[in-house]
Amino acid sequence: DLKGFIFDLDGVITGTAKFHGQAWHQLADELGVTWTESLANGLKGVSRMDSLEMILKAGGKENDYTEAEKVAYATKKNDNYLKLISNMTPADVFPGVKEFLDDLLAKGYVISLASASKNAPTILKHIGLSDYFTKIVDPATLSKGKPDPEIYTRGAEILNLPPEACAGVEDAAAGVAAINGAHETSIGIGDANELSAADIIFSETSALTLANIEAQMAK
Ligand code: B16
Ligand code: MG
């Protein structure tokens, strides 16, 4: 039986992807790399430095910069991103998410956060969910990012639960792969084709309820 839920942040709890997109787009322009929809989508769930590498590669510029220059560009992107997210409020929590979290906690489930974002604590503060997530995997301590299972394995460990007792909730294919690799129940939020590897799929967060999850698991 499930005892814990491990949440991704961007695309599940709130929509920071548009701000990541804006900030990366601005940097891509500066680097002379053409910004495309598929490039934007590919950055979902991917760490900051890996995202920069993907952008440079898309422009055939992966060998043009030193490590220090890359760090400087990633920092520049993040400074822009931080300005964009500073206007986020509790109204930016996706539909049904707060109700789902309240229901989980009221029923004795435990929850943790498995976001690749180093800005997760800042975002949680802006959207008023800091008190809900006292257990957060620190992405700076991971040796590999999603789709590697490490972040979801750690998400269960910090709850003191075996993976079989946990479900992970994700909007990105790389994240679903990470949950499956950690041997947890995978719940995908979004496009059924893109997330076909998930055990359970909901098109929107508003469908994220214990009753709906139980109904899907019984199938
Ligand atoms: P940061 P998630 C991920 O968040 C985003 O989906 C991804 O686009 C971003 O590059 C990554 O966090 C790192 O974010 O630059 O803030 O450390 O989906 O894992 O919650
Ligand atoms: Mg995500």
UniProtKB/TrEMBL annotation:
Keyword vocabulary terms for this entry: Carbohydrate metabolism, Isomerase, Magnesium, Metal-binding, Phosphoprotein
Keyword Isomerase: yes
SUPFAM superfamilies, per database record: HAD-like
Cofactor: Mg(2+)
Cross-referenced Pfam families: Hydrolase
Gene3D superfamilies: HAD superfamily/HAD-like, Putative phosphatase, domain 2
This enzyme's EC code(s): 5.4.2.6
Secretion signal, residue range per the UniProt entry: none
InterPro entries the record matches: B-phosphoglucomutase_hydrolase, Beta-PGM, Beta-PGM-like, HAD-like_sf, HAD-SF_hydro_IA, HAD_sf, PGP-like_dom2
Catalytic activity: beta-D-glucose 1-phosphate = beta-D-glucose 6-phosphate
PANTHER family according to UniProt: 6-PHOSPHOGLUCONATE PHOSPHATASE, HEXITOL PHOSPHATASE B
Similarity field: Belongs to the HAD-like hydrolase superfamily. CbbY/CbbZ/Gph/YieH family.
Protein name according to UniProt: Beta-phosphoglucomutase
Species, as recorded: Furfurilactobacillus curtus
